[in-house]
Amino acid sequence: MERPFFSVIIPARNAAATLTRCIDSLRRQSYPADGVEVIVVDHDSSDDTAAIAVRYGAAVYRGNFSCVSAVRNFGAHKARGRVLAFLDADIVADENWLAAGARYYAEGRFAGLLGFTDRAPPDAHWVGRAWNDPARQGYCRTGRTDFLSSRNMMIPADVFHAAGGFDESELFEGGMAGEDKDFSYRCSFKGIAVIRDASLPGMIHLGCDKSLAEFMRKEWWRQGNALHIAAGRGWNIRLLRAPCLAVAHVGMAAAVLAFMAMKRFGAAALCGLAWCVPSALILARRCDRRCGLMQWGRFWFLTWIRWNIAGCAIVSRLWRR
User: Fold this and answer.
1) Which of 144, 317, 152 minimizes the C-alpha distance to 231?
2) Strands 59-63 and 36-43
3) Cα(233)–Cα(235) distance, rounded to whole angstroms?
4) Are 120 and 101 in contact (CB under 8 A)?
5) Distance between CA atoms of 209 and 27, rounded to whole angstroms?
């Protein structure tokens, strides 16, 4: 069986705290070392990120880029591999990560976008463990999806370039998030298969949220661009569902407060129910049925918080524009 050559592309900025474990996990891969190159693209770091990458034998490129899309695209253009494997500097890869990818891409049998389910480390804060739990989104099974995170994503180089790479437009400049969501959906719209594989238990996300406050800050950053991504893709219905639901949460919160101020407590209670039910319905559809009550309660709480933060972030960005 032909062994595809992988180019592992790691975008990094001030990632010295996690990059050692990330690259070390690549050195322990079961896949032959002569079938892999590691590229670290250092985005204007002020710590030892570049020095660590050089010490581990990675090809290192440094620059000041407009956005993370540009960082990843730069690495893709420097890559020699037939398959591009994007990996964030805070991911510890399972020792069979590349071997599992090779089973898809060997002999050209698969030409799509592939990602592997990752988890929080065992000692993570409860917020990080709950939000990164594969059971929360039903990621315990391998199958088709329409969104993959770029923190661990594989795609043949020719397919990546034909799809246009990650969007470097002003939509994602200034640190705005969502370029991986945009790329995944764009691939899906073009008929490129998007697969999430749940077979690797050793994919660990070291950068998971370490407190509820951090979770809320990151969700503000992650979700604020959602409506503008939908606008940039022609107001696609699939892309509009999440921002519309998020803004609806803000509307329900405002309705609850308004009815409370008018002392119409029955109406406030009905609006409060409508405010809380969507998160429960989403979990009922996605969440693994084997979850315990406490686990499900944590999932619901974080999901509800997420939609409210997302709605506030979207409204705030619309107001600023």
Assistant:
1) 317
2) parallel
3) 6
4) no
5) 26
Predicted confidence pLDDT, tens digits, the chain (321 residues)? 578 999 999 999 999 999 999 999 999 999 999 999 999 999 989 999 999 999 989 999 998 888 889 999 999 999 999 999 999 999 999 999 999 999 999 877 789 999 999 999 999 999 999 999 999 888 888 889 888 999 999 999 999 999 999 988 776 666 667 888 889 988 988 899 999 999 999 999 999 999 999 999 988 888 777 767 776 666 777 778 888 899 999 999 999 999 999 999 999 999 999 999 999 999 988 888 788 899 999 999 999 999 999 999 888 877 876
CATH architecture for the domain at 6-210? Alpha-Beta Complex (3.90)
How is the chain split into domains, by residue range?
A: 6-210, 230-320
The answer to whether the CB of 68 falls within 8 A of the CB of 12 is no
- Name the amino acid, one letter, at 80: R
Nearest-CA neighbor of 63 among 130, 18, 12, 23?
12
